[in-house]
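[Discussion] Sanity-checking designs against the backbone

I'm trying to build intuition for which residues belong where. Below is a C-alpha cell string of 327 positions. I'd appreciate it if someone posts a full sequence so I can compare it with mine line by line.
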C-alpha cells in the first residue's frame, strides 16, 4: 500500500475578534492534513493551541514525522501509539477516517452511530468584554436557545447579570477558561445558580482544581483544560460533573469515541466542543456530539470566511457534514 500525506498551514479571518481570559484573536491558524490514495483524498484539520505548548511549526513537524508510516499503511488503531495525543494526531486521525469513508463508500458515521446523524443544536459564543458590550452582543443573539459566554476575571458578577437580563429565555453556559480563583469561585457559582445558568466550564486552572471537590456545586461544573484523555476521567470525578471532549485534545475521533463511552459509564454529562476552527474541524465533532448534553460547535459561525463547501447552519442548528466536506 502506498499513500501520500501532505500537511499545510492556513489562515482564516475571524469575524471581528474573539476574546477569552487569555487574550484576543482576529484570525485563526490551522493545519490541514491530506492523505491521498489512488486519487482519493481524505482530509482532517487541527488547531494548534499555545495553551498546550503547540505551534504550527511543531504540529507540521509531528505530522511530517508520521508521513512514512502513513504511506506504508499505518491504520488508525496503530496511529494511537505512533503519535502523541494532541492537534497533530487529530488532523491525521480525521484524515484517515475521511479517506476510509471515501475509499469504502461507507460513511464514517456508520462505524459508530446506530442511525444516520441528525441536525443538532450548538451553543453560540459571546466573547469576553465589559458587561455592557457582552449584553449588547447577547441581545443580538437572544433568539438562540443556547449561548456560551466567556468570563474569567476577578469579578464577573456584573457580566453574568447583564447577559442573563439580555437573554432571559436562553440556556447559558459560562466558560471561565481557568480565570477564577479559590477566593471567588463560590461567589460566582452562587450568582450563576441564582441566574439559572446551565453549566460552568473550567472555573479554576487545570492542575489547581482540587478545591472544587471540597465545596458545594450548585451548578454543574465541566472540565475542559483539565481533561484531555480517557485516562484522565476517573481522577476528576470528585470535582467535575461534566467534561468537554475536543478532538484537538484527544488527538482525533478514534480516542474521542473511547473517551465518550467511558465518560458515559462514569456518569459525566458530556459536552463536545471545539477550538476556533473551520467546518472541516467541526465535521467529525458533529457526529461525535449526536446524543450528548451540550454541543459547542459554532467555530465557523465566528469566522469571516469558512471552507467551501462548509457545514450548513440554520440558526443554531448545525447539520451533519456532507461527503464533499468530510466523512
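Best answer:
Here's mine. Compare freely.
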Amino acid at each position: 500500500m502506498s499513500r501520500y500525506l501532505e500537511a499545510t498551514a492556513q489562515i482564516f479571518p475571524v469575524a471581528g475578534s474573539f476574546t477569552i481570559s487569555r487574550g484576543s484573536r482576529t484570525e485563526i491558524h490551522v493545519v490541514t492534513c491530506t492523505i491521498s490514495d489512488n486519487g482519493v483524498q481524505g482530509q482532517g484539520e487541527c488547531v494548534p493551541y499555545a495553551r498546550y505548548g503547540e505551534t504550527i511549526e511543531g504540529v507540521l513537524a509531528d505530522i511530517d514525522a508520521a508521513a512514512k508510516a502513513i504511506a506504508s499503511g499505518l491504520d488508525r488503531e496503530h496511529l494511537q501509539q505512533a503519535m502523541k495525543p494532541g492537534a497533530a494526531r487529530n488532523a491525521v486521525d480525521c484524515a484517515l477516517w475521511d479517506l476510509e469513508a471515501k475509499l469504502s463508500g461507507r460513511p464514517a458515521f456508520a462505524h459508530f452511530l446506530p442511525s444516520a446523524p441528525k441536525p443538532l443544536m450548538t451553543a453560540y459564543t459571546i466573547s469576553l468584554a465589559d458587561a455592557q458590550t457582552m449584553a449588547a452582543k447577547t441581545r443580538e443573539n437572544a433568539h438562540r436557545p443556547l449561548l456560551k459566554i466567556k468570563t474569567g476575571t476577578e469579578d464577573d458578577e456584573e457580566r453574568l447579570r447583564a447577559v442573563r437580563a439580555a437573554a432571559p429565555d436562553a440556556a447559558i453556559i459560562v466558560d471561565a477558561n481557568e480565570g477564577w480563583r479559590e477566593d471567588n469561585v463560590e461567589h460566582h457559582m452562587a450568582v450563576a445558580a441564582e441566574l439559572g445558568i446551565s453549566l460552568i466550564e473550567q472555573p479554576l486552572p487545570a492542575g489547581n482544581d482540587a478545591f472544587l471537590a471540597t465545596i458545594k456545586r450548585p451548578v454543574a461544573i465541566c472540565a475542559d483544560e483539565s481533561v484531555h484523555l480517557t485516562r484522565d476521567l476517573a481522577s476528576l470525578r470528585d470535582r467535575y460533573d461534566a467534561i468537554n471532549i475536543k478532538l484537538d485534545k484527544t488527538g482525533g475521533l478514534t480516542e474521542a469515541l473511547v473517551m465518550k463511552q467511558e465518560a458515559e459509564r462514569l456518569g459525566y454529562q458530556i459536552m463536545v466542543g471545539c477550538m476556533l476552527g473551520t467546518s472541516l474541524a467541526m465535521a467529525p465533532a458533529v457526529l461525535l456530539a449526536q446524543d450528548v448534553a451540550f454541543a459547542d460547535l459554532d467555530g465557523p459561525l465566528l469566522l469571516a470566511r469558512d471552507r467551501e463547501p462548509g457545514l450548513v447552519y440554520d440558526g443554531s442548528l448545525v447539520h451533519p457534514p456532507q461527503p464533499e466536506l468530510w466523512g
